[in-house]
Specification:
Blueprint: E1 4-9, H1 18-23, E2 34-41, E3 44-52, E4 56-57, H2 72-80, E5 90-91, H3 96-104
Parallel strand pairs: 4-5
Antiparallel strand pairs: 1-2, 2-3
């Protein structure tokens, strides 16, 4: 029986899984913001899971009295200049109004489900 080994795949070995990302039209995770756990059989990557620190914008709050005077785009631009080129940013919209603003700014609905999990203490 072939044994499966599990390990953290160092960034210098991410080339092993790059073709999978390319085939899915998804960029490789950003080194320094991601860790990849790999399952290997006979030194071949048989599966992987990526833990990513993914920039996302939320919450958005604008005082109702000042909605006519606050420029959403200017706030977003103030944040975007902090990120390196090519980093994908997500927006979690609490309602359709926020989603519409984000879409006008170039955000697009994703094809994924968004799920959340709280990690329990490992001690």
């Amino acid at each position: 029986m072939t044994e499966t080994t599990y390990r953290i795949l160092p960034p210098e070995e991410w080339f092993k899984i790059a073709p999978i990302f390319e085939a899915e039209h998804v960029p490789l995770p950003t080194i320094g913001l991601a860790t990849i756990a790999a399952a290997e059989i006979d030194s071949e990557v048989a599966g992987f899971c990526v833990l990513q620190v993914q920039p996302h914008m939320e919450p958005l709050w604008i005082n109702p009295r000042h909605r006519a005077n606050v420029n959403y785009r200017r706030m977003v631009e103030s944040l975007e200049v902090l990120l390196p080129e090519g980093v994908k940013v997500y927006a979690f919209a609490g309602d359709h109004r926020v989603a519409a603003m984000a879409e006008l700014d170039g955000f697009a609905a994703c094809r994924w489900y968004v799920l959340a999990k709280e990690i329990k203490c490992h001690s």
